[in-house]
Amino acid sequence: MTRGAEAALHAFVEARRAALFxxxxxxxxxxxxxxxxxxxxxxxxxLGARRHGRLDNLEAYARxxxxxTFIAGRRRFWRRERAYGELPDxxxxxxxxxxxxxxxxxxxxxxxxxxxxxxxxYWEDLGVAATAELLGMRESTVKSHTARGLAALRxxxxxxxx
Length: 162
What we know:
Blueprint: H1 3-28, H2 31-52, H3 58-75, H4 77-80, H5 99-108, H6 112-123, H7 128-135, H8 139-161
Domain RNA polymerase sigma factor 70 region 4 type: 102-153
Organism: Streptomyces achromogenes
Keywords: DNA-binding, Sigma factor, Transcription, Transcription regulation
């Protein structure tokens, strides 16, 4: 890889890290997990760019890698297990009425692919076709994930305000 290509790759990582973190945070709902997701994504992007010599659309490659890494991480068995020092007797009730916190909490309850579709469609402001291409699914699947995800978010938010 040439020095100029290496410098361009470094500039891309510096410029897009914060934007990738925001998307990762919406996907994960956890700052530490989002930071790990971005770090893993950027390592894959840099290695991919070095291996292929040049990527035509680094932004799209990084976004796709971020979403694919998130979805793959949710499939792993060890991600489903959570360690706690002491288990509570009852579930804690949400006390904060802040809409942003409520939406992020509701977003965290969605399946990973629905969450990815909603983040790409409404946070990244991608269209149905671009989201379908990025996730490797049909446009009709993106539309159904969007409809089901929005319905679940609406139900969760209405339940919170009821």
